[in-house]
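User: Could you walk me through two proteins back to back? I'd like the raw sequence and the structure tokens for each, with a short line separating them so I can tell where one ends and the next begins.

Assistant: Of course. Protein one, sequence then structure:
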Amino acid sequence: MKRVLLIGSGGAGKSTLARKMSKQLNITAFHLDKLLWKPNWQMTPKPEQAIIVNNLVRQDSWIIDGNYNGTLDIRVAAADTIVFLDRSRFVCIYQVFKRLLQYRGTSRPDMQDDCPEKIDWDFLKWIWQFPNKQKVIIMNMFETIDQSKNIVILKR
């Protein structure tokens, strides 16, 4: 386990797990939220996202957390282990509100500076619809990827 991809709904615990795995395995964790968001919640253009992710996956070892479908294929192809945090939408929404209170007015450690923690309806809607939309895409992807990859699905 040298190239680990962590995916799942917002609030599922990807960044927390990435930090813990990083310490345990002594592998650098990269948070896509920190790398792809620019100050004041400006998203990096998609072509630049692909460059950033391609540079990351060329490294010998890494833990990358984040969804970002535009570069998911790059990360899946390079990963030896894929961890899907399949958490309840209720747990994810609770975690997002807990995070909002914890980091109110500041940027969390796994987020770009000058992106103070916030919640909007689009994000909550995305979390709520994740099991019916994104999870289906992820589960279908698991059926088609190289069998040599370790796939771990965590419900808790």
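----
Protein two, same layout:
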Amino acid sequence: MTHDPMIGDLLTVSYRSRVCLADPVADLLGIVQASRVRNLRLGITGILLYNGFHFVQTIEGPQNACRELFARISEDPRHSDIVAFGVRKIERRRFPDWSMRLISRAELLETMPELRLLDLKEPQDIERLHGRVLVELSY
């Protein structure tokens, strides 16, 4: 019996990091394109929030793959001040169809206009926003 990376011992890891991008548009496109290919191969799904200052990302998938990916992200110079939160085993994926989906501040404001008043520079506000986005966008 082969192991299906879409089910089984699943882990979710959420983190926030300060963004360190030389060319934000090109760097973001590169990150998303590379992530989609790599994540599909590893059985990882998730979302990436970007507000111009921080990334907040949730990855989900096989435990070893998630741990290895988070270790790789932790060493990536495009991230600094990385803080993991929400690391836990899960029964099912929240984003089964997204090998990586980038959600910009503009898209967040379009989906949830009340966020216009939220200062996304503070870590606790980013984590609160992340929780709301998970509820709004997950299956």
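Confidence is low (pLDDT under 50) at residues 1-6.

Let me know if you want the two compared in more detail.
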